């Protein structure tokens, strides 16, 4: 998990729970390594080389990378580097809200060669604004301009991984909390270079889900799928991340959406899959492993 850690906020806790729900469904032990995004940046390499090395070691040792939502530009470059690392090394990646926006910025810089591409949230003067302030918003009334709550996303590419994970639904309703969005004018350029905008709002102009079809699992969402994840009913895209990180994505994509919302037929060892658990606490699964959440380091799992 590559974020900006000044303590665990509610949104990180929701993301953590969603990872846990998905891990239980996949019958894998979840180990979360907390990487402070700024520690991955060049400036840290100069100022605190040990911290920099430790952050990159943690990232490179991970089976999957998640960049959650956020505001403000601290750590943005580190998040971009994490997305680049995941994209180039085919490591499963899920970017949520800001996490999707930074993945789009990274793609614009690396794949389109637009070196100053940015969100106007971080560089209002960029000559390649690939993430922009939503036109209906008002910059002078920040409080009231956030696009909030449940909104509908329509799948535009029926065979994409996200649509399959959502049981081939034609649309999904997920929760939102953002002011910026992918610049729709740049979408054709991105799509020509291989980044697919598989989910959009009802107008087709607002990008809700990105995917890289050429990558094992590289998904970003403008919405926050973590808010609808529940024990026994993991969020589809978190399930995709954990399944991809544990070598089970193909099996999940083949079977998911038929009857059961959890993994059918015990993919890992043929025994019945775990169906429910209580209170989000660690449980013993049928194969005897402990499906808990483990963090490195001090009590709350946060490294400063
Ligand atoms: N929740 C988020 O991640 C918000 C992302 C970004 N800061 C925006 O306002 O669009």
Automatic annotation (TrEMBL):
<keyword id="KW-0436">Ligase</keyword>
<dbReference type="GO" id="GO:0044210">
    <property type="term" value="P:'de novo' CTP biosynthetic process"/>
</dbReference>
<keyword id="KW-0315">Glutamine amidotransferase</keyword>
<dbReference type="GO" id="GO:0042802">
    <property type="term" value="F:identical protein binding"/>
</dbReference>
<dbReference type="InterPro" id="IPR033828">
    <property type="entry name" value="GATase1_CTP_Synthase"/>
</dbReference>
<dbReference type="InterPro" id="IPR004468">
    <property type="entry name" value="CTP_synthase"/>
</dbReference>
<keyword id="KW-0665">Pyrimidine biosynthesis</keyword>
<dbReference type="GO" id="GO:0003883">
    <property type="term" value="F:CTP synthase activity"/>
</dbReference>
<dbReference type="InterPro" id="IPR017926">
    <property type="entry name" value="GATASE"/>
</dbReference>
<dbReference type="GO" id="GO:0006241">
    <property type="term" value="P:CTP biosynthetic process"/>
</dbReference>
<comment type="similarity">
    <text>Belongs to the CTP synthase family.</text>
</comment>
<keyword id="KW-0547">Nucleotide-binding</keyword>
<dbReference type="GO" id="GO:0019856">
    <property type="term" value="P:pyrimidine nucleobase biosynthetic process"/>
</dbReference>
<dbReference type="Pfam" id="PF00117">
    <property type="entry name" value="GATase"/>
</dbReference>
<dbReference type="GO" id="GO:0005524">
    <property type="term" value="F:ATP binding"/>
</dbReference>
<dbReference type="InterPro" id="IPR029062">
    <property type="entry name" value="Class_I_gatase-like"/>
</dbReference>
<feature type="domain" description="Glutamine amidotransferase">
    <location>
        <begin position="9"/>
        <end position="242"/>
    </location>
</feature>
<comment type="pathway">
    <text>Pyrimidine metabolism; CTP biosynthesis via de novo pathway; CTP from UDP: step 2/2.</text>
</comment>
<keyword id="KW-0067">ATP-binding</keyword>
<protein>
    <recommendedName>
        <fullName>CTP synthase (glutamine hydrolyzing)</fullName>
        <ecNumber>6.3.4.2</ecNumber>
    </recommendedName>
</protein>
